[in-house]
Structure formats: structure tokens, C-alpha cells
Amino acid sequence: MAIAVGHFHDVEPPDVRGRHCRLHSVAQLDSPLLDRDNHREHSDAGGGAGHTGLSPRRRSQSSPCFTTVAAPAGGADHRPPPESSGKMPRVEVVAGRHARGVRELIAEAAAAIASGTRLVPAQGGLGGALLLTGSRAGEHVAVIKPLGDDTAAAGYESKAVLREVAAFLLDHGGFASVEPTALIKISRPVAAPMTTTTTVASIQRFVAHEYDAGELGPSRFSVASVHRVGILDVRLLNIDRHAGNILVKNPPSSSRMQQPLDLVPIDHGLCLPEQLDDPYFEWLHWPQSSLPFSDDELAYVASLDAFMDAETLRAELPALEEPAIRILMLCTIFLKRAAAAGLCLADIGDMMTREFTAQEEEGLSTFEALCKDAHDAVHPPSLLPCPPPDGDGVGEGTATSSSGGRKHVSFGDLSVAEWEAFLERFEQLLPAALDAKKRAASP
Q: What positions does the domain PI3K/PI4K catalytic occupy (predicted)?
């Protein structure tokens, strides 16, 4: 259930004068932080349970934007215990501490938490998202998405939260306007001696907006914004880019009504799957996607370094599985080669998207077919292990799995040498496929 976080209105807020929230950064994410539920942390306790992989869910599982909240039923009192009311919460930055805008975001969020908050159920939405309210009425500071949710499959929320942070870390220079995002741990004192309640979550700066992309026609959107969101989605193999998670940024009050509007992408919990999947790109058939990339956009794409990005994710988010990181590398290489060959965003997205056959069954996309050919060249199908019985789409050491007669390609089974050989073979096969797409797209 989606939750909104606001101030206490029925009790006096704690006196925060002369105090400060302790901001502490740690180098990497350890496995106890990925426990599905919030846990209690004792001063003499150590270790913790491990984490599980992500099972991609339906597209409706992503959290839409929250614009209104409802009061708690029955006027529930969320007053802190008397023994802990004089103690301050502690906010630790787990990942993303050096990224742009994160330090300022954490400072604002810590001040809001220190001033006293209560949980208020939101009117809609899935994914356990929270709104953190600022000091001024109606002002929202951040969106917080905790790991724990009783309605979620074990491990799903934790992996989704990691992907939220990964999308921000990969949006170099704010090219696609992903708002500052970090992985944090919030520790609150409770009544029991030497005990705290700990919540691990992603935190992202709230985007002031009035509409999402589904509430306005795409003709209102700037070409640059559509291209930049699309470039990000291609790199991340986003399987959930629907209109509800593309926000329309509020224009300046002095601007004209018909000025092109800029977009802000949110909800990246279903990007970077652990095996190839069918992406969903809302922008695929928008007219802006069929326009050529600008010189600045081509320069940005050319500057992307798939291998450096992979190292960034391994350092900042070590719990993110290697197959997901390899998906990023592969899609970045594909984007760079396709853009350099002169394909537009719509052509690139079309090559990555599956089509329905006459029997209404999904076939492999052009991109998937290339990857399967390259994979089979370095890891012949006869040597593959049997597919998992559940066919849930999560590749844990499995190269391909069958689901309804369709092959799913994963890269978790490839050694480092085989992965390098795969990339080499993929780049050998790619030029012919790009040329064929250009010829098919020509009038």
C-alpha cells in the first residue's frame, strides 16, 4: 500500500534547535540491508539474511505519481514512545552519496524527518511509495520507496529500489532529468533499550507537476525531452515506460501556454532486467521519436562508456546482479552503434520491441534475435542447462528458458571470456541488421 509521510499535527514537534541529524555515508550495500521486511538492530547484533533475485512483475506494479493523500482512518495516533521522543533519527547514505544533488536532498529530508512525521495512507498506487512533506504546507521534499512490503514477493522490492538508484547514477549530467536519487537507511530509536527500527529505502527528490504524459497529448512535449527519456530507456531496457511514469514539468508562470513542455522520467524499478525482455516504450509512436537526433544528443550517446558505467554500478550497488549489469552494457553498445548508423529513436525502439505474429504469439525482436545468434555462437544450445520450472524470466545462471515457445536470453551463464566473445560476435552481426532497418525505414 502506498503511504504518504507528513508532519505530526496532533503533538508538539520535537525541539530541533541546537540539534542536527547525523548524516553518515557507508561504502557499499551489505546483505542485511536487503531483508524484505524492516528489522530491529541491536547494538551487539551482527549479520543478517541474504537477498533473493528480482522476478519481473506486470507493468501495473510500478508506482504512479502521488498528488493527494488521505487522513488515516480513525485518527490513529503515531506518537513516538516516551522513551525515544528525545532521540533523533539517523539517516545513512548507502549508495549515491557523491552524485549530483544527493547531499542537498538528504539534508532536507533529514531535517523534515527530525521535525516529526506521521504515516498517512495515500489514495492510490502500488509499490509502498512514501511522500516526505517539507516544512511549508503542501510542499513535498522527496519520494521514499522502502524495501519492505507485505504484498510484494520476497526480494522484488529490494531489487526494484536498487534499480531506482541505478537509473539516476546512469543519467550522466542529468541528461534525461532523472531527479537526485540515493539509497538510504533510516534508523529510529524505539522504547526498548539499545534498540532501533531500521528502514532501507530509495529516496528521490519530488517533482512539482500538474500532469503526467497520459493527461496531455504528445504534441505538447519538446523533441529534446522525448529523445532524452528514450535514450535512457533504451540503455536501461525499461520494460515499464508507460505514460503514468513520465511527468510533465511545470512551465514557468511567465511562459506561454503553447511552449513545448519538458518531461521528467520516474519509477525505474522495472529497468535493467536480468535477462532480455520485451520493453514497453510509451514514446515509441510519438512523432518526436521519428525525428533525427540532434548533434548534442548524438555527442552524448557517443560519449557513453558501457564498461565504465558497469564499473560504477558494481561499486555503488554491489547487490545488483551481474546479468542486469551486462544488459546495460549490451543495450548501451547497441544504442551507440544504431545512433551512429543514422537510426532515429523510433527505429531503435522498434528493433528492441517484440511483434505479434498472425497467431498472436510474440516472436523475438530483432535485437533479441541478434543476441541469441551471438550467444549460440559462443555457448551452443546443446550445452545449455534445462530451463527453470517456473519460467519467471529471472536468469540465474541460465542462458535461455522456454515460455510459450519463446526463448529468453540471459548472460549469467557466460564466463568473462565468453562474455567478451559474445560482445565481439554481437558487434559483427549488428551492422547488417542496422542496414536492413535503415532500408526498411526509407520511403
A: 116-386
